[in-house]
Structure formats: structure tokens, C-alpha cells
Design a protein that fits this description.
The protein is mainly β. The chain has strands spanning 14-15, 22-23, 28-32, 40-44, 51-52. The radius of gyration is 11 Å and the shape is globular. Bound molecules: zinc ion. This is DUF7837 domain-containing protein.
Length: 55
């Protein structure tokens, strides 16, 4: 399930590594916590509509 630390005023997730467009938090598809490393996310890019890892 979702981590409930997420608020309605989320900052953008990052940028699409493919087309450098800012990906809003609403485009988040899935996020998973990894042990020790940075959290991994998959989000849909609003431009190329691909599932990417925001950077
Ligand atoms: Zn893109």
C-alpha cells in the first residue's frame, strides 16, 4: 500500500531521463523502498507517456 507520508502538495518527482520534462507527483505509478539505497519510483512521463525512473 501507499506510504501515507504523501501529501497533496507533493513536489515534483523529478525529471524524465529521456526528455527532461518535470514529472508531477500525480504521475507516480509505483514507489518502493529499498534497503539503504535511494527509493525507487516509476512514474509516467507527461511528455513521452513512458514509465520512467524520475531523476
Ligand atoms: Zn519523457
Amino acid at each position: 500500500m501507499w506510504d501515507s507520508d504523501i501529501q497533496t502538495t507533493d513536489p515534483p518527482l523529478g525529471k524524465c531521463p529521456v526528455c527532461d520534462v518535470t514529472i508531477p507527483a500525480a504521475n507516480l505509478v509505483v514507489a518502493y523502498d529499498t534497503d539503504g539505497d535511494w527509493p525507487r519510483m516509476i512514474a509516467e512521463c507527461p511528455d513521452c507517456t513512458d514509465a520512467v525512473n524520475p531523476v
